[in-house]
Amino acid sequence: MSEHEAPEAELTKEQRILAMVKKVLTDVARDTHAPPGIQHPLTDRTIEGIRDCLSLIVAREQELADALGQEMNMRPRYVDEPRQNTVVPINIDALRKKPKGD
Fold first, then answer.
1. Among 16, 40, 39, which residue's Cα sits nearest to residue 30?
2. How many domains does the chain have?
3. Which domain of life does the protein's organism represent (predicted)?
4. How far apart are CA 51 and CA 42, in angstroms?
5. Which of 20, 32, 56, 88 is the least buried, fewest Cβ under 10 Å from its Cβ?
6. Is 71 domain-assigned?
7. With 60 as the cut, is the pLDDT of residue 3 above it?
8. In a 3-state reduction of DSSP, which class is residue 14?
9. pTM, rounded to two decimals
10. H or E stretch including 80?
């Protein structure tokens, strides 16, 4: 399972297409990255087009996830990892107080 998608069996055909197109576009951006001071091999128009496409893909992925009742949790999970969150209370006042002698 990749870090951004559910297992293949749970994805619709459209979700798989969107994930693959997003992966290819980000690979193109990564492969053509130019260090500061070096002219980028892609035109500004092409770079803006890639950004626009990625924005549309993410928006559609969110729509599909909402329609299917799926979460868009963008962090990887292990199969045996518990899904419930644990809330740890923190005493903010204790953190703000400086120890005496400083």
1. 40
2. 1
3. Bacteria
4. 13
5. 88
6. yes
7. no
8. helix
9. 0.60
10. none
